[in-house]
Automatic annotation (TrEMBL):
Source species of the chain: Brevibacillus reuszeri
Assembly and oligomerization: Homodimer.
Protein name: Kynureninase
Cofactor(s) required for function per UniProt: pyridoxal 5'-phosphate
EC number: 3.7.1.3
InterPro entries: Kynureninase, PyrdxlP-dep_Trfase, PyrdxlP-dep_Trfase_major, PyrdxlP-dep_Trfase_small
Superkingdom of the source species: Bacteria
Pfam families named among the record's database cross-references: KYNU_C
Length: 428
C-alpha cells in the first residue's frame, strides 16, 4: 500500500478535508445534513448541474416541440454522440469511439451479439465466476441465440478465495476454443481492478477479442482503452457518474471495428446524413454511433450533460487520487476501530488493485447495514455477507468517513444490529 500518514483522530480527518483541493465540488450536490451517503457506487447523488440540464431538456421540449431534435441548446438528434465525445476522456478513447445509449445489460447484448462470432474450434465465451449476474444472463442468452449450450460454452474462471480473480488464471483459460472474453474492469463485490492492459495484450496474442464491463470503474478510475487496444466496453452512468436512476449508459467501440455491422441494428444505427432517407437498406454510422438501436431516452440522458461538466472540471486523475486517499483512510480507521469485531476486509490494500469502494465481510452484514441506515449512514449490502462502503471523491468528506467508522464501531459495541433481522431487503 502507498504510504499515507494518518492518525485516528477527528483532527486528522478535518486536516485532510482542509487540504482537499476538490472539496468545493461537494457544494454542487444535494447533500442531506443528517445523512452520510456511502452508496454512490450504486446510485450517485444528484448535482445541481445535473438537475439543471434535465430541466433544460424539458424546457426545450416546452419551447420547441418536435423542433427540439435540431434546435435549442442541445439538439436531441446529436446528443448521444455529443455526450459520447464528452465521456471519451474518462475512458481514454477518441470522441467518435464512445456513444451514450441504452443500458448496460442491453449494451452488453449489443456488443456480444456483434463480437461473438463463433468460428471452427473457437466457440466459447470466457468470463469469471464472480461476474455480475446480469452479464452472465446476457452471455448465456447470446450463446443460445447462436445455437450453443451455455453450460458448455460459457467458461467462468474460478476465484481462488471467493474474492479475487487472478490474471494468471484468466490467461491460462485463454485456450484456442475461446472466441470472446468479457470481464469486469472492477469486481462489484471485492472492488478488485483487473489489469485490463495485460489481459488485452494476452487475449490479442491468442487472437481473441476482449471487452470489459466498466460499471464500477467509469468515473472512479482512469482508463486507456485506445492505448491498451481494448476491443469494446460498456458501462452505466448512474453509479460513479451521477447521471440519475436509470440514466442512459454507454458503449466504447475501438475504431478498428467501425466497419463491423452491429449485431442489433435499428434506424439510430444509421449514418446521421442517411437516417431520414428512410431507406430499407441500412447505412451504418462509421462511429460507435452505429451501436445505437432506437430513439434515445432523452429525459434519462439529460442529467449526464450537467454531470459531465463536473467531471471535466474535477479531472479523473485528481478524482482517483482523492478516492484512493479516502478509501485508504477508511481502511486505516477500520483497522484501528473495528478490531476483534468479526469483520474481514474483502478488498485489496494495493492502490493499483482497489477500485472506488471498501468491501467489508461480516456474518451479520445484512442487519449491520440496517443499523447503519438507522444511524444515518447509507451503505450497500451485497448478499450473503458483504457491506460496500463507497466514499465519493466528488462529494464525501474525510470527516464523514471518520464518523461512519465511529458509528459502525458503536453499533458493534452496543450490538445495535441485533434488533434487526439478518435478512436483505427487496433491493439490496
Ligand atoms: C450495475 C451493473 C449492471 C447493471 O446493468 P443495467 O442494465 O443498468 O441494469 C450490470 N453489470 C454490472 C457489472 C454492474 O455493476
Amino acid at each position: 500500500m502507498k504510504e499515507y500518514t494518518f492518525d485516528p483522530s477527528i483532527d486528522c480527518a478535518r486536516a485532510l478535508d482542509k487540504a482537499d483541493e476538490l472539496a468545493a465540488f461537494r457544494n454542487e450536490f444535494y447533500i442531506k445534513a443528517e445523512r452520510i451517503y456511502l452508496d454512490g457506487n450504486s446510485l450517485g447523488l444528484l448535482s445541481k448541474r445535473a438537475e439543471q440540464s434535465l430541466l433544460d431538456v424539458l424546457d426545450t421540449w416546452k419551447e420547441y416541440g418536435i423542433d427540439g431534435w435540431t434546435e435549442g441548446p442541445n439538439p436531441w438528434f446529436y446528443l448521444s454522440e455529443q455526450l459520447g465525445e464528452k465521456m471519451a476522456p474518462l475512458v481514454g478513447a477518441k470522441p467518435e469511439e464512445v456513444i451514450v445509449t441504452g443500458s448496460t445489460s442491453v449494451n452488453l447484448h449489443q456488443v456480444v451479439s456483434t463480437f461473438y462470432q463463433p468460428n471452427g474450434k473457437k466457440t466459447k465465451i470466457l468470463a469469471d465466476e464472480l461476474n455480475f449476474p446480469s452479464d452472465i444472463y446476457v452471455m448465456q442468452s447470446q450463446l443460445q441465440a447462436k445455437g450453443y449450450d451455455p453450460d458448455e460454452h460459457l467458461v467462468r474462471v474460478k476465484s481462488r478465495d471467493g474474492r479475487f480473480i487472478e490474471e494468471e488464471d484468466i490467461i491460462a483459460a485463454m485456450t484456442d476454443e475461446i472466441a470472446l472474453i468479457v470481464l469486469p474492469s472492477v469486481l462489484y463485490r471485492s472492488g478488485q481492478i483487473l489489469d485490463m492492459k495485460r489481459l488485452t495484450k494476452e487475449a490479442h496474442d491468442r487472437n481473441i477479442l476482449i471487452g470489459f464491463d466498466c460499471c464500477h470503474s467509469v468515473g472512479a478510475i482512469p482508463h486507456s482503452f485506445d492505448e491498451w487496444g481494448v476491443d469494446f466496453a460498456v458501462w452505466c452512468n448512474y453509479k460513479y457518474v451521477n447521471a440519475g436512476p436509470g440514466g442512459v449508459g454507454a458503449i466504447y467501440v475501438n475504431q478498428k471495428h467501425f466497419q463491423k455491422v452491429p449485431g442489433l441494428t435499428g434506424w439510430f444505427s444509421s449514418s446521421k446524413e442517411k437516417q431520414f432517407d428512410m431507406e430499407h437498406v441500412l447505412t451504418p454510422a462509421i462511429t460507435a454511433g452505429a451501436f445505437q438501436i432506437g430513439t434515445p431516452h432523452l429525459l434519462s440522458m439529460a442529467p449526464l450533460i450537467g454531470s459531465l461538466e463536473i467531471f471535466a472540471e474535477a479531472g479523473i486523475d485528481r478524482l482517483r487520487s482523492k478516492s484512493l486517499h479516502l478509501t485508504s483512510f477508511m481502511l486505516f480507521l477500520i483497522e484501528h476501530e473495528l478490531e476483534g469485531m468479526g469483520f474481514t476486509v474483502g478488498n485489496s490494500h494495493l492502490d493499483e488493485r482497489r477500485g472506488g469502494h471498501v468491501f467489508l465481510e461480516h456474518a451479520e452484514a445484512a442487519r449491520i447495514c440496517k443499523a447503519l441506515k438507522e444511524n444515518g449512514v447509507i451503505p450497500d449490502f451485497r448478499a450473503p455477507n458483504g457491506i460496500r462502503l463507497a466514499p465519493m471523491a466528488l462529494y464525501n468528506t474525510y470527516e464523514e468517513v471518520w464518523h461512519a467508522v465511529q458509528i459502525l464501531a458503536k453499533i458493534m459495541k452496543e450490538e445495535q444490529y441485533k434488533k434487526f433481522e439478518n435478512k436483505r431487503g427487496v433491493v439490496a
